[in-house]
Design goal:
434 Repressor (Amino-terminal Domain); 7 helices
């Protein structure tokens, strides 16, 4: 039986390098990616509670809708400034809630 890696190489469609790079990126950045995902999930939930769109949030924090989309993807390495703007716009303690969630998980 072929090893898993050999099978993946044969069936990668030319993307073996990209999935390896992505996996390595996730491994190296697991800590901040966790918080980014938590902030994204909390932000989405709060937006739903407030009934606001990505465009409305973008206007509140002074950026483009595309930037908000990136933030809400959970893959953005957010600055404290960005998080503070999000917290103010959403009237919600994102950092505190993300930390509480991490501690309990």
């Amino acid at each position: 039986m072929k090893r898993t890696i050999e099978v993946l190489k044969e069936n990668d469609g030319g993307t073996a390098l990209s999935w390896r790079k992505e996996a390595e990126f996730r491994r190296k950045n697991a800590s901040w990616l966790h918080f980014s995902k938590m902030i994204a999930l909390l932000s989405r939930a709060r937006m739903e509670e407030l009934g606001i769109t990505q465009q409305a949030l973008a206007e509140r924090i002074g950026c483009s809708q595309q930037n908000v989309s990136t933030i809400l993807s959970g893959k953005a390495n957010l600055t404290l400034d960005t998080i503070a703007h999000l917290e103010e716009a959403l009237q919600f303690d994102l950092i505190g809630q993300a930390l509480r969630t991490r501690i309990t998980n």
